Amino acid sequence: MAKLFVKSGDTVVVVAGKEKGKQAKVLGVSPKDSRVLVEGVNVVTKHQKQRSQEDKGGLIKKNAPIDASNVMVVCPDCGKATRVGHKVVDGKKVRVCKKCGASLDKAMAKKVKKQAKEEKTSEAKTKKSTAKKAEAK
User: Fold this and answer.
1) Does the pLDDT at position 53 exceed 70?
2) CA angle (58 as vertex; 23, 26 as ends), nearest 5
3) Are 43 and 22 in contact (CB under 8 A)?
4) pTM of the prediction?
5) pLDDT tens digit string along 121-134?
6) Domains of the chain, CATH where assigned
């Protein structure tokens, strides 16, 4: 069983296969098989037999799963397809965008932004203090 970087509800872009370039929402995830079910991607036609008078038989269009390695998560902030990084915020592991650093998990988005802002200000302060020390010498 492999760990997946994709969760249900994420927006993904297909990067390989006949559906390459399509952007859609993830309907389901199967970590055991390392496959994802994406809305409108890999649509197959199933022949269904009529079971009773009420049931309609015929051809039914159905989404089929594709391999998780063929999709990339789309960052909600920058709108680009990105690899997924991880960061610990308040003792919880959070998925973050590798390009802009924004959170991919909606519940933790505000906390990640706040922490990133704090890190930038602390880095700027250390750069200023090292520059002052270098000038003093």
Assistant:
1) yes
2) 20
3) no
4) 0.71
5) 777 777 777 777 77
6) 1-48+59-74 (2.30.30.30), 82-137 (no CATH)
